[in-house]
Every structure is written in C-alpha cells, then in structure tokens.
Amino acid sequence: MRSFLGGRRSRRLAAVLAIPLAIGLSPLPVLADPSPPVSEVVPDRQPSTAQDGVALIRIIVPDQASVDRLNDMGVDLAEYKKSTDEGIEVHAVLSPQEAQDLRDQGFDLRGVISDQSDFAANQAERSRALASADAAEAATDTLTVLRSEWFTSLDGRRFLSVEVKSSAIDSQTVLTATWDSGPGTAPDSGGTATMSRFTDAGQYMYHRFNSPLAVTEAPTKVTVTSNRGGSVTVNVNKWLGEPRKAPSRHYISDFVDHYMDPTELTERIVALAKEFPKYAEIIDLPNKTNGYRRQAQGQFGTVAASTFYVSSRTFGSEGGNDISVALVNPNAAASPLSVAVTGKDIVVTLATDAAGALSSTAKQVVDAVNANAAASALVSANTYRTNTGAGLVAAAPATRLTDNLKAPASVKREPFQTKALRIGKTRDGSKVGVFLYCQEHAREWVTPLTCLETAERLLRNYSRDHREVVDDLDIFILPTANPDGAHYSMYDFNMQRRNMTNHCPATTGDPAARNSWGVDLNRNFSVGSIFDGYSGASTSCTSDTFAGPAELSEPEARNEVWLTQQFPNIKFAMNTHSYGGYFMWPPGAYKSAGRELLPRVDFGTENYFWEASSHILSAVQAHRGTGIWPGRTGPVPDVLYSAAGNSADEHWFNRGIIGWDFEVGADLYDPATGRFQAVGFQPPFSEGHEEAMEFANGQIAILEVARAFSQDRRRPDSKLRITGGTGTSTSFTFLTNEPANVYYTLDGSRPTLSSPKLAAAGMREGAQQITVNQTVEVRFFAVDIAGNVENNYQPDGNGNNYNDKRVKVGSSH
C-alpha cells in the first residue's frame, strides 16, 4: 500500500476504533432549562420562561465511574474530558437549578467557562461583521495597490508579488490578479491568480499572494479586479531589495470572518457551485427538516396550581402568532365560565361565585377552551406540566401568542432544504468518495466554518494546489447537518444542542421548557443505539441527549444515510464537532454493564487509523502549532465516553466507511498559570477563526489520505517474528511493512480469508502474541486496507504462494 506519509513503515499500535461523532448523555432528572424539574414544581413557585443563567460549567469527579454516572443521568456533557490531580474534569451545560441539583448530590462544580454574556459578545461581534459585509455589498469597492513588484531569486527564476487593499473588508470579497508577459504583450498573457485575504489578530490587512508567483517573463502591468466591482491597473516595478527564495507553492486560505448561520452557509456553497460549475455542484438532500418554527404559545398564572398555557394548532409563522387570548372578569355575581371567539381573538369570561369573586380553576379554563369548537380549532390548552390545575385563575388582558423565535426575516421559517456541495472533476461515482460533514450539534459554531473553509480552498486553489484531490476524488461537503437547531442556537438559545423537533407530550410543552425540546442527531442513528441497550443517550424528550422516538426518526439523520447510500463510492468520512481537541474513530458506544463495546475494528484497520492520524494531525499542527494529545486520540470510548447511536458507527458498521471525528478547539496553554484552558463551544471569533483554519488543514489532509488509498496498488509484506520461548512453548507474532491484516493457519492447511486473523493484544498494546506448545507449520499472508494481497496470492484459489514458516517449541528471539 502506498503510504500517505511519504514512506512505508510498520506500526505496533493497539487495536481500537472510534469515529465522527460528538457526544452527550442519558435520562435527566431535571429539565434542561432554567425552570424547576417537573417533579419539583411546587404551588408557591412561579413558572419561569427566563433564559438567563444557563452556563458551561466545570465539574471535577474522582473517576470514570462518576463520569459514566453523569452520562447515565442525562447531564448535558460537552465533548471534553481531562485528567487532573484531583481526578477527572468534565464540562456540562447547566441551568442554575440543574447546577444546584448536582451540588446537592455531592458533585464538585468549579465555576463557569462561558455564559450568556459571552453569547451577547459573540452576537455583537457577528452583527458588526454582517453590517460591514452588507455595506460592502451595497457599493463597488475601491482597490488600493500597496505593492506591485517582480524580482529574481538566487537561481535566476522570476517571481511576482502584489499586495492590494479593498475597501470591502469582509471575507466574501475575492480579488483576482491578471498580468502581462512583458512590454507590448496582451494584458492577460502572463497569467491570472486569485489573491489570498491576509488578516492579523482578526483584522483585515490586505490581499496578497501567500508566496510570490513564478512567472516566465517580467510583467510590466498587473490588473486586479474584485467580485465587488472594483478594478485597478498599475505598473509592476522591479524590486531592488535583497533577493529572497520564494516558497515552492502558492496557496490561498482564510475565507471566513464571522460566525455564520445555516442560511448564510448554504448561500455560500450555492454560490461556489455556481462560480465553479466545472468542478462543483449542489445536491439537494431529500428530507426537508421540520423548520425553524414553533407553535405560538401563551402562559397564564402566577403559581403552578393556577397556571395554564395555550399552544396554537399551527406554527407561529403560519398564523399562530396572530392569535390572542384574554381572561375577563365579568364583574357580576354567579356568572358562568364561557369562551367566545372572534376571528383569531379568544375571550375567556371567567366564572364568579355568589359574591362576585372569580371562581374558575386552571383545569376548568383548560377544559372550557378545549371544549369550544372555534377555540380548539385555533389552540390547545393544558395545565402546567403535571399539576392538576386546582388553583384559581386571575383575569388577564388580551395576550398575543408568540413562537418566541428571534431570528431575522432572512431565516425562513418553513422546512429547510439541506444542501451538500459535491466537488470533483469527475462526478460519476467512479472515484473514491469522501464525506465531510459538520454541525450535527447546533451550538458548535466553529465546525461549519471548517467545512466551508475547506470547500473554498479546494475550489479556489485548484489551478495550483489540490488539483490532485479534486481530480482523483469525489468530495461531498455538508457544512451544517442541523440547520434548524443551529438557527435556534444563533438567535434564541446559544447552548441549543439538538434539532427543533418537539416530541414531548403536552405535560412538558409549556413555554418554559422550550430550550428542552429536540433530538440529539448524533444519537438518532441505527447502530449501537439506546434502543439496542447502549449507553450515552436518553429516551427522555427533555434530555439534551434525547435519541428521538425511534432510530432514524429525524430527517437530518436520514439525509446522512441517504447520501452514503445514494453514493456508494463514499469510502471515507469526517464528522467535525467541538470542543476539546480530540481525534477519534469507531466504535463509539458500549453497554454500561460490563462495558460491552461494539466490535472493535480489526488490527490492520486500527493501525491504518493510527498511521493516517499522524498525517492528519500533523496538518492541523502546521497552522499554529496545535498538537492533539495522544490521550485524546483513539476510539471514542477509549478517550471520552459512550455515545449510543452516533453517525460514525452508522456509516462504519452499515456501509464500511472509514471515518474520523474531529473535536476542534484544543485547550490553549496559559504560560502565566502553567495550565491548559478550555475554549468552549463559541469562543471569541478570533479563536474560532484559528480553529477553523487549522482543522480545515486536517480535512484537506483526510482528502490526501483518501487519494493515497485510491491510488494504492502496492502489495504488503509480512514476516513472522519469534518473541519468546521456554522449554515447552514458543511465542511469536507477525510484522507488516504497512497497516495490513495477517491471516494464518497453524495446522499446515492453506490460509484463506476465513482463517484466524492477527488481533491486538489489547487497547494500545500492539499485536497479540501467539503461543504454541508444539512444533507447528505456520502459513500466512497479508492484505492491506486497499485490498492488495501479499505476493498476489489468491486466498480463494489453489495457489501456494503464501508465506510458510516452521516454528519449533523452545525457540527464542
């Protein structure tokens, strides 16, 4: 097999495996919102619809069993775990009530990583960036040339260097340079190239070539044009300074300058497909989402016993927001309870007793509204959660129902058409496919930028870099797998993890629970699910790891499955999540009892994961030196915890897709304290930008790994090595020159693909040692991950060109 690391080498690494997924947990004893748990609502506590107080909090536990306990409780754990002197540090998204409940149970909570104030700062920063982009789009930009020079390097080769500043500073501004090939030649005879947007400390500086461009002849003029309409032509001067050696490659990057919602992301990939029709196209995924929409609601009452709420039959955006409800005091004695409807205005006239005092209970009002044909056609009414509604209802002025959604009009409320960008020179299914997908979890704002940055780099660098991967692969990029939830996270509740489909019964449908609805998409798949008995998900509809009412119940999950089924040439995948700086692969789930794992990958595939990891993580590190820790690299359960029903296991076990999982956002080292600090789901954009840049490097490296796989025609080599012996036994194992599986027999029979296969000795322990207590004839052969068989041996044939080694009892090293 051709190594994507530039050489052929063997590795002794443990058998393990995990894959693209992000992680959560199980049944919560409390609601995932600021209001009290259903079981703890008391008559003298006001039901709350407040959103304040939810925060990302550190928890210190003594051991992994305590982490599993939090997981099984359904606590909304982040994809983060770190060993400390005191035990294990994990992070959880908690309301004040949930935090207090955990403290009451003896958990050690250590302070806030981020809260709503951080969310507000991110939103303000994003608004400024969007306003700048809108202003830039409204007018033609002005281009100012800072430098325009050609020079000769030490070996006599000519190079061109140009720096131009645009008045439109947003990342969607693309500048293109065209130059002649000397005096009297055509303006575009020398060549053309897209310029790279250069930023420093998060600020736009100018556009440039990241490294000077090699030119055949010294140009006299260069013309720079902008997609915003600006244009400028200037002379190219010879640089008289000290000559310098130019880098060997020209490469442009940095196409994101603010956090983006799914509407923006989708518009960007649609624009890319339109700009590069020769190499890209849009795929409309077949299952539209539920949409960024909710029923309109109104809640009435001051304590639980007297509280009730009404919900519109239609979504708020489809007329529910136009409904009003008034509770009227008739100001008369012995008046009956009645309901009247005019258009979309519902008036409930409350009953009074003989003394004229209001006497309608919450339950009676609910029953009256639901019994009125005109009213029940518009709304449904319910008492507050599990309360019987025995308290008296007070009069209230007309209250218009609302869906409480705050996104601007640019975010459509109807079901979302999810789109994937397909990139490749040949897109007929004949090339090896790679599926890059991001933002299964809504609150992970950096991840879709990573997918978008990768798409931009592939297409805009095609003429000079990435030509091989675009020519030789079929690449599918899904920037946001969870558009509804991501819109909700961006505009309504930044810690939203799930989609927006509400599967809860009426007893948990009040407005105070609106941040507790939805399905964790990375728990909704069909392999190793909670319905199969695996840990790390919940059947509670208010848990942040709610797996849904059934496997693949959600359109977003079915879209991923459809794509991998529709395009069976997909052999590789990368699921990008945040945060913590992890690199993982399948299996991703286990059953808590006995820690019964989904089957680990075989030893050869495990070593392939590890060797590919070296290449991929080196690419991540190249951007700013971020090193993913060895302890955070490996199969999901080995480095984090169980995640029942995740997408990586779905793609690996059902379709054999080799996949990984990034958790972007590695800890940052603080030299002042000598400690690493976590970055959270939504760091300031300056940090989020750097994470997107470095992990886009990693996604490009995955494409390079996949291309090496597609080009691999080399056959592996294997040999038997004696590792030990006594007077009555001998131990041996097999070595290979690349990741490969070794099949063997000990009885002198011909080895086949049904023969025993070399396994791992244990997690991260290298190859197993085989011990025999009598002299045996060992026959064996190796098969690499691309399917190349050693010596061109045909296991299902009749040939005997396998390896043959006699192992004697008593042999030693």
Which features characterize this protein?
813 residues, alpha+beta, Immunoglobulin-like, Aminopeptidase, 8-stranded mixed beta sheet, 39 strands, globular, zinc ion binding
Descriptive report:
Helices cover about 20% and strands about 25% of the residues. With about 800 residues, the protein is an alpha+beta fold. It folds into four domains: about 140-230, Immunoglobulin-like (Sandwich); about 260-290 and about 420-505 and about 520-710, Aminopeptidase (3-Layer(aba) Sandwich), CATH 3.40.630; about 295-395; about 720-805, Immunoglobulin-like (Sandwich), CATH 2.60.40. The strands form ten sheets. An eight-stranded mixed β-sheet has the order 15-23-25-24-26-31-27-30, with helices on both faces. Strands 5, 6, 9, 10, 11 and 14 form a six-stranded mixed β-sheet that branches. A four-stranded antiparallel β-sheet has the order 2-3-1-4. Strand 34 and strand 35 form a beta hairpin. The chain is globular, with a radius of gyration of 31 Å. Residues about 1-50 and about 240-250 have low confidence and may be disordered.
